[in-house]
Design brief:
The chain has helices at about 5-35, 45-65, 75-105, 110-140. By secondary structure, the protein is mainly α. It has a single domain, classed as Up-down Bundle (Four Helix Bundle (Hemerythrin (Met), subunit A)).
């Protein structure tokens, strides 16, 4: 079963992945100005794409299926609505980002998407850390290393 520590770990991993993505986007824009296609060496961009597929999207699924339903108070329901809306908005950005990455062509749109993902995901992860997790602790008396009721194990980031 998933624990609060695992949710924190994933949020930290997301922030690290975004930092690498920002660095790669700087390189990307230099290459675009020179009219070059995306080189195979732009690993951070590919890592970000893999992280979205293997980390963030499954993380969202675990939260939506096992964590958010635990938010049964009025405050919890409001928070659940906000987080679900943010997930939907981020999924749209992720989808477009991955579509552009498949083309392997640097573009201003790819750079803009990376920045939008950064602007959306960092506050979202912070909201989970600062609001969701404390609320779960309060509602269910869950300690950081205790399983979240009904949440499956989080193992996809170990790959």
């Amino acid at each position: 079963m998933a624990t609060l520590v695992e949710l924190y770990s994933e949020d930290r991993a997301a922030r690290q992945s975004l930092a690498r993505l920002e660095e790669a986007c700087s390189l990307l824009m230099l290459q675009e100005r020179e009219g070059k296609r995306l080189p195979a060496s732009a690993e951070a961009l590919y890592e970000a794409t893999a992280f979205i597929r293997k980390g963030l999207l499954p993380h969202f699924d675990v939260e939506e299926k096992a964590v958010f339903p635990l938010l049964t108070t009025e405050e919890g329901k409001n928070l659940r609505g906000e987080l679900l809306q943010e997930h939907d908005q981020l999924r749209v950005l992720f989808s477009r980002f991955m579509e552009l990455m498949e083309r392997r062509a640097p573009s201003q749109e790819l750079m803009n998407l990376a920045l939008e993902i950064d602007r959306g995901l960092i506050p979202h992860a912070s909201k989970e850390d600062e609001v969701l997790i404390p609320l779960l602790r309060q509602l269910y008396g869950i300690k950081d290393d205790e399983p979240i009721p009904h949440a499956p194990p989080i193992g996809y980031l170990q790959d």
